[in-house]
Amino acid sequence: MCPPAEYKVLWEINPWMNKKNQPDKEKSWNQWHSLFKVYQKLRFKIFLIPPAKNLADMVFTANAGWGRKGSFLLSNFRCQQRRRETEFYKKWFKEHGFKTFSLPKNIYFEGQADIVTLKEAYLFGQGIRSSLLAKDFLQKKLFLQKPVIPIKIINERFFHLDTCLFYIAPIDTILYFPGAFDRESLVKIRKLKADKIEVSQKEASDFICNGIYYEDTVVLNKNSNRLVSFLKKKDLETIIVESSEFKKAGGGIRCLTLFLD
Fold it and tell me: Which helix (H) or strand (E) holds 233?
């Protein structure tokens, strides 16, 4: 995680961002710290990377890259405003014993934000921020044993996969917003073995799909009576962590979190 000391809306690189609609600093800290405390309650080991000056989006550590078993593929950001983040992430991961890899300049990849791990495969979101060509690098550099299934995102409001698709492993269930994907990708999603639940545009806009799970607990950005009721019937506890200030930059609680294993 990265504390939100530098967080603000400095540019407009997605449809959620508006420089006239700045996040409240105190509220941002409180929301970030609420998530931090939830992770402490769940007994996660939390690492912090210091925020770099004027890199407002560095708080969204899910975009740093993606790694497995000591290897880490660094992101190659499509938007020029975020590219300087990579040098700080590269330094941090090297200092913590990871073997880091970089992509060619013309192949974009925005990290864990575009990866969802299923029991049977990895889903790879491409089309808006990440390049389809990054798929082969993921497979080879990280020695992945499961297939990587590319899913094409076509809705600019849901520019990363983790904003429109959420896999809950304890119940082998995928929540997804159909309006984010092209027709071919919807066919791919619907053919997956996991159970599927379609979320509405309202639920998707509340970043319901940008949640996290651990054992019998699911953490969501916003309450959804329908989905919370469903999770309760499946014997899962739901924790709501409000993230309205981070939504102003197009992010939620999974965006604020990079899982290292």
Answer: helix 225-233
> In what order do the strands lie in the sheet containing 99-101?
65-68, 71-74, 99-101
Sign of the Cα torsion 257, 109, 145, 188 reads positive
**252 lies in some domain:** no
Catalytic pick from 33, 79, 160, 164? 160
Residue at 248: amino acid letter: K
Q: Tell me which of 2, 164, 209, 255 is the catalytic residue.
A: 255
Q: What is the pLDDT of residue 250?
A: 98
pLDDT at 238: 97
49 is in which domain, residue-wise? 4-247
Total number of domains constituting the chain: 1
Task: Tell me what the mean pLDDT of segment 99-104 comes to.
Answer: 96
CATH of the domain at 198: 3.75.10.10
Note if 255 is an active site residue: yes
111 lies in some domain: yes
Strand ranges for the chain from DSSP E: 65-68, 71-74, 99-101, 115-117, 122-126, 148-152, 165-168, 173-176, 195-198, 212-214, 217-220, 237-240
Q: Check residue 21 and report its DSSP letter.
A: S
- Residue 151: CB atoms within 10 Å: 23
Active site residue 2: no
Residue 192 near residue 116 (C-beta atoms within 8 A): no
